[in-house]
UniProtKB/TrEMBL annotation, chain A:
Record InterPro entries: NADP_DH_HndA-like, NuoE-like, NuoE_N, Thioredoxin-like_sf
Single GO MF annotation: metal ion binding
CDD domains cross-referenced by the UniProt entry: TRX_Fd_NuoE_FDH_gamma (cd03081)
Keywords, alphabetical: 2Fe-2S, Iron, Iron-sulfur, Metal-binding
Keyword Iron-sulfur (UniProt): yes
Organism of origin: Salipiger bermudensis (strain DSM 26914 / JCM 13377 / KCTC 12554 / HTCC2601) (Pelagibaca bermudensis)
Keyword Metal-binding: yes
Cofactor: [2Fe-2S] cluster
Top-level taxon: Bacteria
Family classification: Belongs to the complex I 24 kDa subunit family.
Binding, [2Fe-2S] cluster: C81, C86, C122, C126
Protein's UniProt name: ATP synthase subunit E
UniProtKB/TrEMBL annotation, chain B:
Higher taxonomy: Bacteria, Pseudomonadati, Pseudomonadota, Alphaproteobacteria, Rhodobacterales
Family of this protein: Belongs to the complex I 51 kDa subunit family.
Names of required cofactors: FMN; [4Fe-4S] cluster
Name the record gives this protein: NAD dependent formate dehydrogenase, beta subunit (51 kDa)
Molecular function as annotated in GO: 4 iron, 4 sulfur cluster binding; FMN binding; metal ion binding; NADH dehydrogenase (ubiquinone) activity
PANTHER family cross-referenced by the UniProt entry: NADH-QUINONE OXIDOREDUCTASE SUBUNIT F
InterPro entries: NADH-UbQ_OxRdtase_51kDa_CS, Nuo51_FMN-bd, Nuo51_FMN-bd_sf, Nuop51_4Fe4S-bd, Nuop51_4Fe4S-bd_sf
Origin superkingdom: Bacteria
UniProtKB keywords: 4Fe-4S, Iron, Iron-sulfur, Metal-binding
Ranges where the NADH-ubiquinone oxidoreductase 51kDa subunit iron-sulphur binding domain occurs: 418-463
Length: 155, 506
């Protein structure tokens, strides 16, 4: 990830790079979020201008999707699957334990900005449930101790 | 020495990369030359990471492997030796048509793909007229594997006959249903198969452009499929002149953004166009006015990935498998609280009980099976009393259930069915696109009503039943319309857990 205060030139370059695509708005939002960990407010007027939309329309699209963040997440994002197959293997107890240990709720970030925990509905690991993801690392048959250890290991 | 280690994300989630590192280290230590090859998963997820060693007799399987098990691979008599992969019961009992190559080949080797039957279907289709291509698909009896079971050939024909300057093939790779991972497995394990299926669809419908709308929760599948598209393009399988046919077809991956409802085809199209993923009213059908207002095929990954084998082996070969109007094979995904979870491709018609008890081996916890949810979060719960139901579209419909994308989630007797009903409503409330009131508001009321029932207010049960009827009748799409399936089936099967006497619920 680059610095989290991009200039409008930085943002415009990311927007322009997606413009040859048909239906470029989601790719634009993804590209900005991938670069900066969130979609900064400052990007909305630029996107609106480039795509000939109102800012309200861009905001409406962004807010429809669970993936896009208005503010940066913690340094480590833990996603824990809440869907049925994982529930059948104790995902409820797993997420309770993880959230309690960190002292946060779903979607919350620890006070030191280190960890954010989010719910996810299926990671396609339903035959080795419960499933979780830390950053890009997938964990099958996850338990709280394992998630703890992974987070300890990471700075 | 050649050793295969799957790069499937389930294998990785269970430690495949650590096993690869251990194999490298051990080979160095012993001074042995080892080639580590990567494959997709064979589908035996309970044995992942499943490592295979090539021998003159065939590939020998070992699993589930940990780094500590690696050094013994280089000696005789490994305690996790399973024998020849092809001779394993799980493999021998399958009819692998769609998944024929998955786990066998390197997913990104076009050469291995071709050596195992790949591109034969596309080559055959190139020699056919568009009409003949469609007829072949119709004859195969292939029905959409995304859930609704609509005949694929008929959908293609509508697009073929539509007049427009541009048409699109859109692959629905949103796979949001809990308990399903067949799309993920084929995109990670045999991505050229999907590419080939889409190219054939392009020829049959006169479409030159394809999109794969792939959920963001699948980073590995996104990476593998994107790479495979580049390789296919470089080899002339995609591009201005598909395999020298004179026909153009190219495709790209589009990443979803975490909305379950975007698996619904019209919501998906809005999302693809860069709009809110709100469901569109039908008509117009996407086949006539789909992506960017143009005629569009929207098909599930497995529907499209099954097309190559239909053209390779012939429609009749495919249609000879199955049961009644459920023709061909179906990749069952056995998940949840189950001993042997994984993917098993077989002809339609196996009974639910056989799938859960015989293939799945019962629960992982060793306790009794209480219920099985089939078809994702909008699918009904079935009880062991319904275990003789054959796996087929009509047969499940007859049980007030659906097969959906063929995911089965097993629950043991500790499952809290009122809690699961509440979850179904909560999920609908979280994921509703907001277009219709019965879904948007009804699901929130459903959660509240179930909380009242949980608190002991049995009088709220008739309210719940009314609410489910309203959602069923008044919702535009199956998110609001089918959420009553899991809720009502839980109530019907386990009324005591809702504080109701059995008759009252029926
Ligand atoms: C809420 C909802 C979610 C859906 N999710 C998916 C999905 O993830 N993948 C899929 O292929 N079809 C999904 N569908 C079904 C699609 O609308 C559509 O029927 C399907 O993509 C058509 O392809 P097929 O004929 O090959 O099955 C969903 C439907 C609804 C109502
Ligand atoms: S049923 Fe729900 S998800 Fe479907 S169109 Fe209506 S509000 Fe949207
Ligand atoms: S059941 Fe947990 S994510 Fe699918
Ligand atoms: S339900 Fe959790 S990974 Fe599928």
């Amino acid at each position: 990830m680059r610095h989290s205060h991009p200039t409008s030139e930085d943002l415009q370059a990311l927007i322009d790079a997606q413009m040859p695509l048909e239906g470029p708005l989601l790719p634009i939002l993804h590209a900005i979020q991938e670069a900066y960990g969130h979609v900064p407010e400052a990007a909305l007027p630029l996107i609106a201008e480039t795509l000939n939309l109102t800012q309200a329309e861009v905001h409406g699209v962004m807010s429809f999707y669970h993936d896009f963040r208005k503010a940066p997440a913690g340094r480590h994002v833990v996603k824990i699957c809440r869907a049925e197959a994982c529930q059948s293997m104790g995902a409820g107890a797993l997420s309770d334990a993880v959230l309690e240990k960190l002292g946060i709720g779903w979607g919350g970030t620890t006070a030191d900005g280190r960890v954010t925990v989010e719910a996810v509905y299926c990671l396609g690991l339903c035959a080795c449930a419960p499933a979780a993801m830390i950053g890009d690392r997938l964990i099958g048959r996850a338990d709280a101790a394992r998630i703890d250890a992974e987070l300890e290991g990471a700075a | 020495m050649k050793i295969w280690v799957p790069m499937d994300s389930a294998a990785k989630a269970l430690g495949a990369e650590a096993v690869v590192a251990a194999i490298r280290a051990e080979a160095d230590k012993r001074g042995i030359e080892v080639e580590i090859a990567r494959n997709g998963s064979r589908g035996m997820i309970w044995l992942e990471p499943l490592v295979e060693v090539e021998t003159p007799e065939g590939r020998m399987a070992f699993g589930p492997m940990t780094p500590a098990d690696v050094s013994a691979l280089f000696e005789d008599g490994h305690e996790k030796a399973l024998g020849l992969t092809d001779e394993l019961d799980w493999m021998k009992r399958q009819t692998r048509l769609t998944f024929a190559r998955c786990g066998l080949t390197d997913p990104l080797s076009l050469e291995q793909y071709e050596a195992h039957g790949g591109l034969a279907g596309l080559r055959r289709a190139i020699g056919m007229t568009a009409e003949a291509i469609i007829d072949e698909v119709k004859l195969s009896g292939l029905r959409g594997r995304g859930g609704a079971g609509f005949p694929t050939g008929i959908k293609w024909d509508t697009v073929r006959m539509a007049h427009a300057d541009r048409k699109y093939i859109v692959c629905n790779a949103d796979e949001g249903d809990s308990g399903t991972f067949a799309d993920r497995m084929i995109m990670e394990g045999d991505p050229f198969c999907l590419i080939e299926g889409m190219a054939i669809a392009g020829l049959g419908c006169h479409a030159e452009k394809g999109f794969v709308y792939l959920r963001s929760e699948y980073p590995d599948a996104i990476a593998v499929l994107s790479r495979a598209i580049e390789i296919a393009r470089a080899a002339g399988v995609l591009g201005a002149d598909v395999l020298g046919s004179g026909h153009a077809f190219d495709m790209e991956v589009r990443v979803g953004a975490g909305a379950y409802v975007c698996g619904e085809e019209t919501s998906l199209l809005n999302s693809l166009e860069g709009k809110r993923g709100v469901v569109r009213a039908k008509p117009p059908l996407p086949a006539l006015e789909g992506a960017f207002g143009k005629p569009t095929v929207v098909n599930n990954v497995i529907s499209l990935a099954t097309v190559p084998v239909i053209f390779e082996k012939g429609a009749e070969h495919y249609a000879n498998f199955g049961l009644g109007r459920s023709k061909g094979t179906i990749p069952l995904q056995i998940a949840g609280n189950v001993r042997h979870g994984g993917l098993f491709e077989t002809a339609f018609g196996m009974s639910l009980g056989q799938i859960v008890e015989d293939l799945g081996g019962g629960t992982a916890s060793g306790r009794a099976v209480k219920a099985v949810q089939v078809g994702g979060p909008l699918g009904a719960y079935l009880s062991p009393d319904q275990f003789d139901t054959p796996f087929g579209y009509e047969e499940f419909d007859g049980q007030g259930a659906l097969i959906g994308h063929a995911g089965l989630v097993v629950f043991d007797d500790s499952a809290d069915m009122l809690g699961m009903a509440r979850f179904a409503m909560e999920f609908c409330a979280v994921e509703s696109c907001g277009k219709c009131t019965p879904c948007r508001i009804g699901a929130v009321r459903g959660v509240e009503t179930l909380d009242r029932i949980a608190a002991g207010d049995a009088e709220a049960i008739p309210l719940l039943i009314d609410l489910c009827e309203t959602m069923q009748d008044g919702s535009l799409c199956a998110l609001g319309g089918f959420t009553p399936y899991p809720v009502m089936s839980a109530l019907r099967l386990f009324p005591e857990e809702f504080g109701a006497v059995r008759e009252a619920a029926e």
